[in-house]
Amino acid sequence: MAQPQQSDGADGTGAGKPPLRVGMVGYAFMGAAHSQGWRTAGRVFDLPMNPELAVVCGRDATAVRAAADRHGWTDTETDWRALVERDDVDLVDICTPGDSHAEIAVAALAAGKHVLCEKPLANTVAEAEAMVRAAEEARGRGRLAMVGFNYRRVPATALARRMVAEDRIGALRHVRVAYLQDWLVDPAFPLTWRLRREQAGSGSLGDLGAHIVDLAQYLAGERLAGVSALTETFVRQRPLPAAPAGGLTAVGSAGTGEVTVDDAALFTGRFASGALASFEATRYATGRKNALRIELNGERGSLAFDLERLNELSYHDATEPAAHAGFRRILVTEPDHPYLDAWWPPGHGLGYEHTFVHQARDLVHAVAEGRAPEPSFADGLQVQRVLAAVEDSARKNSVYTPIAA
C-alpha cells in the first residue's frame, strides 16, 4: 500500500499532519451521517491525523456522484471491490445493509485497510465470527477494526459510563431500556430492504435492539448472561416499492411482498452480576419518532438518559438525606464532560450528528496511536450473540436461553 503523504492543509485543517484517507461504501442515511463526522472532526478537535474524504462508493454512478458533491467526497466508485483495492484509501467505512458487512470488511482488512463498520456488525453470528477472525489477523499487521455504535458517543451517556465506573450508583440492580419508533405504523408503507431478513438480518431487533443491547452493556460495564424474549410481526404483507429491488417478486395480484423480520421485540435479561434488565424495541410505537430511554438503578443511586433530551443526564444519589434527595438534572455541556472541551460554551447543546463526529475523533486517535478502538468487532460479535439468543428464545418461548460464549 502506498505510504500516506503529509497533508497540505488546503482545507484549513491538518497542516503538517499525516492524512487518514477514508473510503466509504454506501451514501444514504448512515453515509450522510458518517460523512458529517469525517468532514467535521478535524475542524473541531485537534487530531493527530487529518481525515480526508477520498472516495465514496455506490452502485448508481449518477446518484453516488451527487452524494459525493453534496457531502464533500473527492472521488467515486460503483464497485466496492475497486474501492478496497485503491492505494489512496487507508480506512474503509461500511455504511451498507447488513448482508454485505462481512464480505466488505473481511476483504478490506485483507487488503491492509482499517475498517469502521456500521451496526449491527453482521446479519448472523457466523458472519460476525468471521469478521472478528479477520480483525484479529489484521491487528497483527497493524490494522484496526471498529463497529459503529454511535450512542456511546453522546456526551451524557459517556458521562453516565464514567459515573458507573466511579461507583457513583453502587452495585447494579436494574437496567431498563426502550427504543421506540413509529415509521411502520401505516400498513401501506412499502416493503423496503429493512423488512427483508436476507438483507437486514432482523427487524426492530437488529435495527434498534442492537443499539440498546450495546448501550446497556456499555453503561453497566458488564455483559448479559441470558435472555427471555417475545417478538411479533404486526403487518406481514406490504406493498412492493415502485421499482422492486433485491430479488423481490410480487405476491398475488395486489403487488405485495412478505415481511420476513420482526416489527417489535420485548425481552428481559440477566447480567453476569445478577442485575436484571428489560428491553423493548419497536417500530410501532405510535407517536414516537426516535425515543430511546435507559435507566440504571444501583444500591446507592440511579442514572437515567433520554435521547430526546440528549444534553441531559438524570442522577439520584441515594446516600443523601431523604428530606432533599431526588433525581436532579445534570446539564452535560461543561468542558470537563466527555467530548465537550472542543465545542461551545457551557449551556450550548449538541445534537445527534455530533455522535458521528465523536466517533470519527475516537477512531482517528486509535489509528494514530495503534490502539485497539472501542467498540471492537469482538464487542459487535457479543451483541450479535445476544440478538441471536433473543430470536432463539422468542422461537421457543422459553423462560431462559443461555448465550453461547
Number of folding domains? 2
**Helix segment count?**
10
Radius of gyration from CA coordinates: 22 Å
- In percent terms, what proportion of residues is strand? 15-25%
Q: Which secondary-structure class do the elements indicate?
A: alpha/beta
| CATH classification, class level of the largest domain | Alpha Beta
Proportion in helices: 25-40%
Largest sheet: 9 strands, mixed
CATH architecture name of the largest domain:
2-Layer Sandwich
Spans where pLDDT lies below 50 across 5 or more residues: 1-5, 7-12, 244-253
Intertermini distance? 36 Å
- Name the CATH homologous superfamily of the largest domain: Dihydrodipicolinate Reductase, domain 2
- Name the helix and strand elements from N-terminus to C-terminus, one letter apiece: EHEHEHEHEHEHEHHEEEEEEEEEHHE
Domain GFO/IDH/MocA-like oxidoreductase: 159-303
GO molecular function, one term: oxidoreductase activity
InterPro entries: Gfo/Idh/MocA-like_OxRdtase_N (IPR000683), Gfo/Idh/MocA_oxidrdct_glycsds (IPR050463), GFO_IDH_MocA-like_dom (IPR055170), NAD(P)-bd_dom_sf (IPR036291)
Keywords: Oxidoreductase
